[in-house]
UniProtKB/TrEMBL annotation:
Organism classification: Bacteria, Pseudomonadati, Bacteroidota, Chitinophagia, Chitinophagales
Provenance organism: Chitinophaga ginsengisegetis
UniProt-listed SMART domains: Haem_bd
Protein's UniProt name: Haem-binding domain-containing protein
InterPro entries: Haem-bd (IPR025992)
Residues of the Haem-binding domain: 12-147
Length: 166
């Protein structure tokens, strides 16, 4: 019985101590000159969808829920945000080559169409991030519309993704 109490106290102490080790927040108050909406026509409806269903993980500004104050949940969320921004950051979008922009818009449309985005683990808690069929269509059409305009504006070889040197 004494060993169980010691183990319980150690676990409790660790749970309290990890609360002091917090990841940096993904919050930027500066202007976003490379934001996708600065270069591509984006309706208010699409901006609303991006804001509530995409930007927490795919922008430089995350709106943190109350449970993000609890470790290890904050670490888990931080990893999701970092991974999301690495894959696609709408605030840094136009800072990428046209080939990457074109590719990411296609991938985005495909992932929304297949129900891979937004992540189901996100929409379980954030029900407002769930997309209706008309919202999915609107987002997919927006992505495809931008891709079409890119095809009109740039030569075909602009869309070839260059291999990165190892």
């Amino acid at each position: 019985m004494k060993n169980k109490k010691i183990i319980l106290w150690i676990v409790l102490l660790i749970a309290v101590l990890i609360q002091f080790f917090r990841p940096a927040r993904n919050i930027s108050s500066s202007a976003q000159p490379y934001d996708i909406t600065t270069a591509y026509n984006t309706s208010a409806e699409v901006k609303n969808i991006l804001s509530r269903a995409c930007n927490d993980c795919h922008s430089n500004n995350t709106v943190y829920p109350w449970y993000a104050e609890i470790q290890p949940v904050a670490w888990w969320m931080n990893k999701h945000v970092k991974d999301g921004k690495h894959d696609l950051n709408f605030n840094e979008f136009t800072n990428n080559p046209i080939s990457r922009q074109y590719k990411k818009l296609g991938e985005s449309a495909e992932m929304v169409n297949e129900g891979e985005m937004p992540l189901s683990s996100y929409t379980i808690i954030h029900a407002n991030a769930r997309l209706t069929a008309p919202e999915k269509k609107l987002l997919i059409d927006w992505c495809e519309g931008i891709r079409s305009k890119m095809k009109e504006k740039y030569p075909a070889d602009s869309f070839v993704v260059k291999k990165r040197k190892a």
